[in-house]
User: What shape does this take?
Amino acid sequence: MPHAEYQHSYNNMSEKPMTNGEKPHSQFVSHLTSLPVVSDSISVYKTNPYGQKTIEIATVAYDRIGKPFVPYLQGPYSFLAPYLQKADGLADQGLGKVEQTFPIIKEDSEKVRSAALQYAVLPLKLAGQGRDYVFATYDDEYKKTGGEGIITAAKAVISTELKLTADILQTVAGFLSSKKEQAKTKMNKTQVQQ
Assistant: This one.
């Protein structure tokens, strides 16, 4: 195809080789792929037969559809290159902030997977603990009431509800009182600074 072989004389970033002869690349992408989780995911995807097939299809699609348009896009790219470099730098800085906020993403894949699994299962564990607490409280109240039958079960249900309500209110009061103390100390600090 003659149009695909035509080279524009625009001087853009992708045409300039760096000192070692390589062409420049995205800081963000190289930073992202340096994370163990991402790098391991990419290698697993490449070794998977379905992943290999999709990579092959994408490569063929690019060769047939995208590659002929590359010379036509070099002109607009030369105008967009500074903005793209700035966006790439900002994305790289954002990824750095994410690494600072969540340092676990720099750990090996197995540790990240186990931590994510623990957080994913946490609601189920808490629900199980809550269920166990409710049933244990009911059994305790049923034994305290004494006797058998529907009346005893109804008294146990009511006393269980009252005990659970008292426990919840006590927990909320404890949480709010600690926040109240924090607010008072913060208020005192701001008044002293003024």
Notes: Residues 51 and 57 are 10 Å apart (CA to CA). Confidence is low (pLDDT under 50) at residues 1-22. The chain has two domains: 2-106, 109-193. Residues 109-193 form one domain.
